[in-house]
Design brief:
This is Propanediol utilization polyhedral body protein PduT. It is found in: Bacterial microcompartment. Belongs to the bacterial microcompartments protein family. The protein is of the alpha+beta class. It has one domain: Alpha-Beta Plaits. The chain is built from 3 helices and 4 strands. Strands 2-3-1-4 form a 4-stranded antiparallel beta sheet. The longest helix has 14 residues.
């Protein structure tokens, strides 16, 4: 299965820590980055299989319904792999 990177940016540091915990518990993903990026904003970066990266969106969506004032942005990237040509 292809590897992917999921990035979640939130406007609440507390909500970011809470979601990070829920996301790591809900799927087999690796935590790549979990930090504040400027006052009041939080960044989570997860790595793993594409299906595993999509799984943590469920707790994030539930949390968004419970706290609509928390803005967030979620993106999934699949890195391109280059194989050097045999010389």
């Amino acid at each position: 299965m292809s590897q992917a990177i999921g990035i979640l940016e939130l406007t609440s540091i507390a909500k970011g820590m809470e979601l990070g915990d829920a996301m790591l518990k809900s799927a087999n993903v690796n935590l790549l980055v979990s930090k504040t990026i400027c006052p009041g904003k939080f960044l989570l970066m997860l790595g793993g299989d594409i299906g595993a990266i999509q799984q943590p969106l469920k707790p994030a969506r539930r949390s968004r319904r419970n706290a609509p004032s928390t803005a967030w942005c979620w993106r999934i990237f699949t890195p391109a792999y280059c194989r050097p040509s045999a010389a």
